[in-house]
Specification:
Helix content is 24%, strand content 22%. The chain is α+β, with helices and mostly antiparallel strands.
Length: 264
Amino acid sequence: MVAEQPHGLVVRFGALWHGPARRKSASLVIAIAIEALIVLLLLTLGAGIAGDKDGEQTVTEFAATDFASPPEPESEQPPEPQPEITTTSQVVQPVTQPEPLRPPPLNLNPQPSTEPPPAPPQPTPQPSPSPTIAAKINPGRTYGPADTGNPRAANDSQRVGTAPNGEPLYAARWYREPTDSELAGYLSTANGPGAALIACKTVPDYYVEDCVLLGESPAGSQIGRAVMAAAWQFRVRPARIGGREQFGSWVRIRIDYTLRQAPR
């Protein structure tokens, strides 16, 4: 019985080897063979692709180039000798002390200093003329306010022309002369000296209205414009006709703008 057991194991192993194990081994061998064929095919195709294309030729060109002869090696120069460094002992020079400064000798006989000559006297500046605004009265003329005394005792006013409205125009007389301060604000923009002539209508309380510019001198001096603006404050007597003052009559007034020397 004991001798038969090994023989039985061998029979069973052989049966197993000739059974499924054999089939697996055959399948493995076939799979390895197929993979080897695939690798061989890939190597064959790769060698064909990497090769040269049909019909192409490789041309190699040669060009002749002149090469200069290599320069001759320069002769080696001997190294320059290093200067010898000599050590010399330094000699310490003695330091000399500077001599003390001596004060200058005193001048026992000093000379008097010369004074500069006096400056020449400067000329006294002359004051510039200042404009003066005034109402100039000239009795010898036929225009402008003229002081003829008491109006009741004097003769009738003199006719000097025709007013702008066609009425007679008479020479005027001041009831009160305008002051410089009353005219300065208006004539400050005018160019003097000069004069302006205006015709105005007299109204009660010895004022004037409806003034008209008759002329100015010099032309373009703006004196006439300034006198027209200041006429509202003129106090003028009306024309005297038949021994009586006639308010509403037209009179002619002259204003002179003069320059005089300012007081020092």
